[in-house]
What does this fold into?
Amino acid sequence: MRRIIALFSFIIAITSLNAQQKISYLLTNQADLNKVTVQITFDALPASDANLVIPRSAPGTYILTNYMAFVDDAVGYTTTGKQLPGMIGDGSFFTFGESNDLLNKVSYTVDIQKMEIDLLDASSSSKARKDYLGLFGYSVFGFIEGLETEAINLMINTDPSWPIFSTLRPDINRKYGTDSYEAENYAALVDAQYLLGTGVQVIRVEEAQIPLFVAAYTETTVALEGIGETGLSSLQKLADYFGYIPMPHYTLVYEFLTPISERHDYGFNMEHLNSMTAHRDISREYNPTNDLGTIIHHMGHSWLPLRSWGEGYRPFTWQVAPLIETIWLNEGFIWYVSFQNILHNEEILSWWKSNMDNAPDFIKTKTLKELSLLGSTQYASDFRIGKNLFSRGALMAFDLDGHIQKQTNGEKSFKDAMLGLLHWSNENQRAFKYDEIEPIMSQATGVDLSAIWNTWQKAPK
It folds into this structure.
């Protein structure tokens, strides 16, 4: 009986251990500093079933980016030590043949320098400079198809003299040469940023309600404390508005760069779950106080859509830019909260209206949902689409706000509608469907919002 119990306990222990096993990623910065090698180790699969997917898009980017173009030397490794060359599939992925050989590791190289040269939008590209390597997770990390939800252990190896920083676990006390990180799943891994090199500066902003950091690479003189003060002010204003902070920590990631060419654009920024990234051309004067609206807006995305989202935004389809019907909500509602409610910008309404009035016919004739679908891949590539999406969403929020306040004698406002969406997402832990949005907001405010909702769904007159 004791032997049976011991054997049973051993089986349970082994089963538990296997359940806790993580996928391992190893990122190595090559000696020339312009390339990285990524190695992924996983439980063995038949080679015919192992597809290495390279992302084409990421949440909130609203664009297709051919990161596959910067990947070389894809190789699969079998449990017997055999190497199988990666072959480009019909989409953004590599295959490793049709054999039943068990594959448990793949590796590939990413050319960061080529990426920065070829991608004209700085907000889409990782960077490689003499004393700096700045990596967007989704631009360098692929995944084995079907394993996206598994927990991940990441190891980073670089020059022993280089400190390593990541928004996954921000800290002013950085390790040199090697560091490791845990990620809940693939989405958490690639949402983060990884900053390597002696050119990276990191400060922690004191007196913030949560750990707040500024991490920057700058090719000119910039006082990070000024960015930190603006970030602290933004965090406090958003916390006052929403009444709580959902992020466990937050990092403002800035790059001040010498332009690669006149065609390269350093104007767009990007939001992430617990961070934002900003890119600046050093030939232009920088004043951190002028970034207040930008930081509030992108930090505000940590509430919506990063923690309250519609279909297509999450779970994300990494191999394509998914068709999203609610970009106007993702962007417009936060534009309204940031600039109208928090900053009280008196001119912003006129600008939103002018964006709609001056739009070309191919934009004016589209319904809100149709325009959002168009913006799923072209939001910033033709920014008239993007500007009209957030302008329509912001003006809808303005109309909703006025109606809610009038019907409740000022006791409730658009903030209650926003909190209704956030609380609903927290309770249900899924994307809300399109026809669920208005009922959620109506219930949260106690006001029938259907008439205003239906009006804004139509193409502008």
